[in-house]
Amino acid sequence: YTRAAAMKYARENNKEYKDCKLIVVHLGGGISVTLQYGGKVADIINDEDGPFAPERAGGLPVQSLIKYFGESGMTTKEMLKKMKSRGGLVAHLGVNDSREVEKMIENGDEHAKLIYDAMILNVARNIAKLSVYVDGKVDNIILTGGIAYSEYFTKEVAKRVEFIAPVIVYAGENEMESLALGALRVQRGEEEARTFTKVVPE
C-alpha cells in the first residue's frame, strides 16, 4: 500500500516515481513507515519494530521483553499473538478503533489522550528516523491507511514533522486500487510481474 501511495503522489504531481524521495506511513491495525527513493522502497520500519498501533505492541525494550516473557509463563505462540493483536491501543484502552479512542478523549478521558498522543509522537519519531538516510531531503511525507481519516491524528503528526517536508494525506486502505494499478503497470510493460515463494528454513 505504501508503494501504491507513493506512485499515486508521482502521478498527481507529474513526476517519475524513481525521481521522488518520499516517506510513506501506513496507519492501520499496525503502523509501518517506509522511505522510498530511486524507484524502490529503500528502507522500512515494519509494524513489529515501529510505533505501537491499535493492535500491535510495536518496538519494545528487549531486556524488559525478555524478562516479561520469562515471568509470564506464556508460550511463544501466545506471546506473539499478544504482541500482534492484543498490544497497542487494545492493551492500554481495550479498543482497536481510533474513532472510539477519539470519542473517549472528547468525553474528557485524560488517560486515553495520553496514550493516543504517545502513539502520534511515536509515528512522528519514526518518520524523523528514516529522514536521516537522505539527509532530511524528503519531497513529501504521505500518511495513508484507515487512521489517516482522523483529522486530529494527521494534524498532530504533521505539526511534528513538517520541518522535514510537507505532509499529504491519502486516507483509506485502497487495497483494490493498489492491486488494480499494479496489474495495469505490468500490462503496460512499466513493471515486471514477480512470483513470490515461501522460503522454508532447513
Which runs of at least 5 residues are low in confidence (pLDDT < 50)? none
Tally of contiguous helical segments: 8
Distance between the termini: 31 Å
Q: Give the CA-based shape.
A: globular
Helix content: 40-55%
**What is the CA-based Rg, rounded?**
18 Å
Say how many strands there are.
5
Q: What is the residue-mean pLDDT, rounded to a whole number?
A: 89
**Largest beta-sheet characterization:** 5 strands, mixed
Structural class: alpha/beta
Strand fraction: 5-15%
Reading side by side through the largest sheet, how are the strands ordered?
3-2-1-4-5
In N-to-C order, the SSE pattern is HEEEHHHHHEHEH
Summarize the structure.
The chain is 46% helix and 15% strand. The chain contains eight helices and five strands; from the N terminus they run αβββαααααβαβα. It has helices at 2-12, 62-72, 76-85, 88-93, 98-106, 110-131, 151-161, 175-187, and strands spanning 22-27, 31-37, 40-45, 140-145, 167-171.
